[in-house]
Amino acid sequence: MKRVLNLLFNDFTNDNRVLKESRSLQTNGFDVTLLATHFKKELPKEEVIEGFKVRRINVGRIKLLPLNLILFWIKVVFLYKKEDIIHSNDLYALPPAAFIKKFINKRVKVVYDCHEHETEAQIYNGKKLLKKLAQIFEKKLIYSADSIITVSKSIAEDYVKMYKIELPKLVLNSPPYQGNKVYDLLRKDLGISKDKTIFLFQGNYIAGRGVDDLIGVFERIEERNTNIVLVLLMYGKGVEYIKEKVKNAKNIFFHEKVSVLEYMKYVSSADWGIYLMENNCKNSDYALPNKIFDYIMGGLPVVVSNLKEMGSFVRGYEIGITVNSQDQEEILDVLEKIHHNSGEEYMQALEKVAKKYSWEEQEKVLLKIYNSL
């Protein structure tokens, strides 16, 4: 049984992609250890989750990125240099894997899993030096990878142009197939009447992801259409700000984070999914976010920004409507025309896409990669 070290530079509390990959590998004949950080001391240092081992290591008492990273890298190199495969999630986790392969264990195989366009992400906006350092790191280290995984076709093609490498494999961050299961939890929890059409935005609050603009749209649309409402199923550092911002709105509801086991039931309780992501970096333009696949798996047609990857995906499969996220009048016109039964025309296409892009299909790609190493 081959040993897999899955490296993740966070505490592993809500990373569904890493959970699914680790579980799939463990249940298909690999011995998986997920190594994460241990900033939140209330989390156990060691535990077993769905069959695979999770270990969290101390990387400093205070959060200071350079120090935390260096400590993480040093501990990985000293403690885990005899693994068969190292799976590096994101650029932060690639340096120790590359170092081990070059100087210590030349037989180790390295999988580089790019959860986004690593050096073109929003976090580098206005930080030219930091971005340049990230680009240097990736350019120097990417060739140590035996296999590279990305999350959209556009990102994969751009990596080929940047580094003259083979086309990375696509493992999309989609949920398991669940079939046509419909729930009504949002209406029950939030007291939303049956005649209202529910638009859902779910996920971590991050500035620049369009949430503030989305709230502004629904504040305006209340004057034009009282039959549509927005539910924000959110978590993260900024949620208190969001809760305060919408507390007096009649057509915007905030719902606290729910457990992973209940999550898709809540998604399928809405009528439409919505994501007005801003085009503020190349990563956003090239992204195919996991929330889109959550909406699809929940049977929700979508209204999304007309970005390169996300827009072409939605139009190509005819599963919703694309809009200019910077044109509020266009968005208002689109939403105003949507009524309670207007999503039915998309149901057949949504079912086909849900099956085609389910995690069960993504798992096949992942296992093919690993079985070839």
Question: What's the short version?
Answer:
This protein is α/β, with parallel strands linked by helices. Helix content is 40%, strand content 19%.
Overview features:
373 residues, Rossmann fold, six-stranded parallel beta sheet, 40% helix
Give an overview of the whole structure.
By secondary structure, this protein is an alpha/beta fold. It folds into two domains: 3-174 and 359-371, 3-Layer(aba) Sandwich (Rossmann fold); 185-356, Glycogen Phosphorylase B (Rossmann fold, 3-Layer(aba) Sandwich). It is 40% helix and 19% strand. It has helices at residues 16-27, 65-79, 94-104, 128-141, 153-163, 185-190, 211-221, 239-246, 260-267, 282-286, 290-297, 308-317, 328-336, 347-356, 359-371, and strands at 3-7, 31-37, 46-49, 52-57, 85-89, 109-113, 147-150, 169-170, 197-204, 228-235, 252-255, 272-275, 302-305, 320-323. The strands form two sheets. An eight-stranded mixed β-sheet has the order 3-4-2-1-5-6-7-8, with helices on both faces. A six-stranded parallel β-sheet has the order 11-10-9-12-13-14, with helices on both faces.
Layout of helices and strands:
Elements: E1 3-7, H1 16-27, E2 31-37, E3 46-49, E4 52-57, H2 65-79, E5 85-89, H3 94-104, E6 109-113, H4 128-141, E7 147-150, H5 153-163, E8 169-170, H6 185-190, E9 197-204, H7 211-221, E10 228-235, H8 239-246, E11 252-255, H9 260-267, E12 272-275, H10 282-286, H11 290-297, E13 302-305, H12 308-317, E14 320-323, H13 328-336, H14 347-356, H15 359-371
